[in-house]
Specification:
There is one protein chain. 26% of the residues are buried. This protein is mostly helical. It has 6 helices and no strands. It starts with a helix and ends with a helix. It binds protoporphyrin IX containing FE and isoquinoline (ISQ).
């Protein structure tokens, strides 16, 4: 499937909006992940020993932002090149980190669902089927690249 300029624009525009509220965005992202999959808490070093998702943990914020940013970048690559195109070293690192932390394939669906719900709340009335589809496609392709690398790694 071709990733269109319009899809790229939808992803970029919505990320520009969400970027203005990183503290809330990151808190909601993690809270939603734990709502869907409480056991995922044990995977993240900065959540392991706390009862609630910490409100102002810089590490937590940085991590949440990375996932959004990388998905946004994946959208740009999909439109430009028709495929997610990460440097080999980045891909290797991502594969290794996730294998080491015990991440498994079904976790990717959990993170996807949480990502989409967080975007939906973040963009309010700008939410649409097209927006949802564009983020989904970019995330799926990025997730596939990471999952493939994780299998090489294992
Ligand atoms: C670490 C991105 C999916 C769990 C990381 C890091 C990045 C990243 C960039 C390294 C952070 C750093 O060292 O600074 C992504 C992207 C994903 C994805 C782009 C999907 C497209 C997942 C999934 C899970 C997961 C599905 C499982 C719920 C983790 C954990 C770490 C990690 C536990 C280590 C965090 C820690 O320091 O404790 N991820 N990830 N990731 N990721 Fe992911
Ligand atoms: C996956 N990998 C790294 C960081 C993350 C932050 C929030 C949700 C999922 C993540």
């Amino acid at each position: 499937m071709v990733f269109t300029e319009q899809q790229e624009a939808l992803v970029k525009e919505s990320w520009e909006i969400m970027k203005q509220n990183i503290p809330e965005l990151s808190l909601q992202f993690f809270t939603t992940i734990l709502e869907i999959a409480p056991a995922a808490k044990g995977l993240f070093s900065f959540l392991k020993d706390t009862d609630e998702v910490p409100q102002n943990n810089p590490k937590l914020k940085a991590h949440a932002v990375k996932v959004f940013k990388m998905t946004c970048e994946a959208a740009v690559q999909l439109r430009e090149k028709g495929a997610v195109d990460l440097p080999e070293s980045t891909l290797k690192y991502l594969g290794a980190v996730h294998v080491k932390k015990g991440v498994i394939d079904p976790h990717f669906e959990v993170v996807k669902e949480a990502l989409l719900r967080t975007i939906k709340d973040g963009v309010g009335e700008k939410w649409s089927e097209e927006l949802c589809g564009a983020w989904s496609e970019a995330y799926d392709q990025l997730a596939t690249a990471i999952k493939t690398e994780m299998k090489e790694e294992a």
